[in-house]
Specification:
Order of helices and strands: HHHHHHHHHHHHHHH
Structural class: mainly alpha
Largest sheet: none
Strand content: under 5%
Mean pLDDT: 85
Shape: elongated
Number of helices: 15
Low-confidence stretches: 14-44
């Protein structure tokens, strides 16, 4: 322990979001959807029934064979194409991409196909390609929550924070009951050095989930950074009740104590943070 007063940088949480920034896999989970095989009468109901039966018994290979046969017999069956691409995604992504790209823009489920295309690009690490596909979805369906949030996440990961912000704000407007979206907005404001703007989305996150640890920890961080020490103290102590070894919270309390002239107490907090 060097005895110096911790700065705002010192007490910044090392993981400012719930469990680190959402990874590409998190983005994939955000926009991936499970599509059921259509129950509508078709020209090849035997193939669809075979696919359904195979999936119920966990035989993915047999389901793929049946769906391919159905697509060959009924090329306009978008439902089967979507299901087939979903099954091929992890093992034969290039084949899945080809199947999805044959869904025409005039098809009612074109945007659903695009979402799966975006997933494939993300799984392959092609974030720029995924962003281009997601932008096409947003242009057609601006109310698409998954596409808006995924664009925000991609731009955030690319450190394009100005581009990420409007998509994150729109995602929060579309689904105000997802607390993690407000954490993302707060992180964007932090990266843009607009620290006072971080408070409102963090409070919104707590309105959704009052026990959201990351929101309390980030509120302790930002209130301390802004010199709002009473609020910082409150949220830091809340975090320590849940995790007595939370180093950023301990450093915040040490800084507050030293600021008030309580040097022995500050040293005690710092010792716990070591």
């Amino acid at each position: 322990m060097d005895g110096r007063t911790p700065t705002a940088h010192d007490v910044r949480p090392s993981q400012k979001r719930a469990a680190a920034l959402l990874t590409v896999l998190g983005i994939v989970i955000t926009i991936a959807i499970v599509i059921a095989v259509s129950q509508q009468p078709t020209t090849a109901p035997d193939y669809l029934e075979q696919a359904r039966t195979a999936q119920k018994r966990g035989d993915t290979a047999a389901a793929i064979v049946a769906l391919k046969a159905h697509v060959q017999a009924s090329p306009d069956s978008t439902e089967a194409r979507l299901q087939l691409a979903s099954l091929l995604r992890d093992t034969r992504p290039d084949e899945a991409l080809t199947i999805l790209q044959r869904v025409p823009p005039t098809d009612p489920q074109w945007t659903t196909a695009l979402q799966q295309v975006a997933v494939l690009h993300l799984l392959a690490g092609r974030q720029d390609h995924a962003a281009a596909v997601l932008k096409a979805i947003v242009e057609t369906e601006p109310q698409n929550f998954g596409a808006q949030l995924s664009l925000a996440e991609i731009y955030f990961n690319q450190k394009n924070f100005d581009a990420a912000l409007p998509h994150a704000l729109e995602a929060a407007r579309l689904n105000p009951n997802r607390a993690e979206t407000f954490l993302l907005i707060s992180d964007i404001y932090d990266e843009l050095h607009n620290h006072i703007a971080m408070i409102a989305p963090l409070q919104a996150a707590l309105a959704v989930n009052s026990d959201l640890y990351a929101a309390h920890l980030n509120l302790a961080y930002v209130h301390h950074r802004l010199g709002q020490l009473t609020e910082a103290d409150e949220h830091a102590r809340w975090c320590l009740q849940k995790n007595p070894r939370e180093v950023p919270a301990l450093r915040i309390l040490a800084s507050i104590a030293r600021n008030d002239g309580r040097f022995e107490e500050a040293d005690e907090w710092l010792a716990k943070a070591m």
